[in-house]
Amino acid sequence: MEALARERFSIPNDVIYLDGNSLGALPRATPERLRALMREEWRSDLIASWNKHGWIDLPMSIAARLAPIVNAKPAELLIADSTSVSLFKLLAAAARARSGRKTILTQRRNFPTDLYVAQGLCDMLGLTLRAVDADAVRDSIDDDVAVVSLTHVDYRSAAVHEMAAINRASRDAGALTCWDLSHSAGAIEVDLAGTECDLAVGCGYKYLNGGPGAPAFIFVAERLLETMHPPLQGWMGHAQPFAFEDGYQPAPGIARFLTGTPSILAIAALDCGLATFDGIAMADVAARSRGLSQAFIDAVEARCGDAVSLASPGDPAARGSHVCFAHPHGYAVMQALIARKVIGDFRAPDLMRFGFAPLYNDEGDVLRAAEILGEILDSRAWDDPRFHARAKVT
Predict the structure, then answer these.
(1) What CATH number should be reported for the domain holding residue 41?
(2) Which InterPro entries match (predicted)?
(3) Catalytic residue from among 89, 98, 290, 353
(4) Domain region containing 170
(5) DSSP H helical ranges for 163-281
(6) 180 is an active site residue
(7) Alpha-carbon distances, residue 8 vs 270, 271, 287 (angstroms)
(8) Overall pTM > 0.85
């Protein structure tokens, strides 16, 4: 299983990078794109670049690159803000669109920021956040639920929700669905159109390779666009931003979900990240994802035995593109791996997380990583005080 497009990335030759689920690798095109933007656009044309170089349209034009990755129409997608801010916008708009309903439904142990955003919104609007176990979500959608807010791929276990079934159950109950695609877009097949998804958000810096802190994306189904009213009514979401009117008039379509001035440098970097998918079918990406994760599981279990335990679904079709193994000293083991230039990450309390980005990871990466993990466990190299000292970012 060779990588689909490793030549499109700049990765140190001696590093096995298995953390694309947290921060995608650097596309080779990004540095020159940013240099050119600063040198030939910002420096030379200054503020005229908003018109001359089309800066003002980038949130929509670059979003069009995302359309085949998540199977949506370009007009349903927008690049804007962070995932957390985008989620707040969509949940608030959904609650308003289903006024009279008082519940936002989610799952326990959802990604924390999703829970925090939803709880804050509920406190503001007098709604209730109801969290249930993942397998109880579908049966918990009743006539008081305004919106179902879920992460498509669980950030810990990599378990995947059945998007089509939950969308259907929500629609039957009169509720809306809002998906967080941060751990799925660019790694597995996402079918927003085919599953009749209502709303979605996702970050640009994981599998989409947009760089640290890259802007997020928003999806609103075309059939809902004119009935959704964003809560953050910024000037860029106005029908005529440069009329400078006192009163707000929402822009037509997805542009109404813009708020402030877009970050042009960050969006340009994300454009390079999205371009790494050019000419590559998401069905091929998903197949490689399943193959790489299964090869890693098989190799770790054969090499490490009972020293670690699988904390992700065993069925490749039921998991995303990362795998978690549990170990009582998982943080220290991961630090020892990083010292050997095998880069994954850790999630409390005991999970070592390994992400597989099919564009640049190959079978050699996963087999070598499993062997080094076995060597570290056999030698107890992780039991060095320096590997137990917790850093701010894990």
Answers:
(1) 3.40.640.10
(2) Kynureninase, PyrdxlP-dep_Trfase, PyrdxlP-dep_Trfase_major, PyrdxlP-dep_Trfase_small
(3) 353
(4) 30-275
(5) 163-173, 264-275
(6) yes
(7) 14, 13, 20
(8) yes
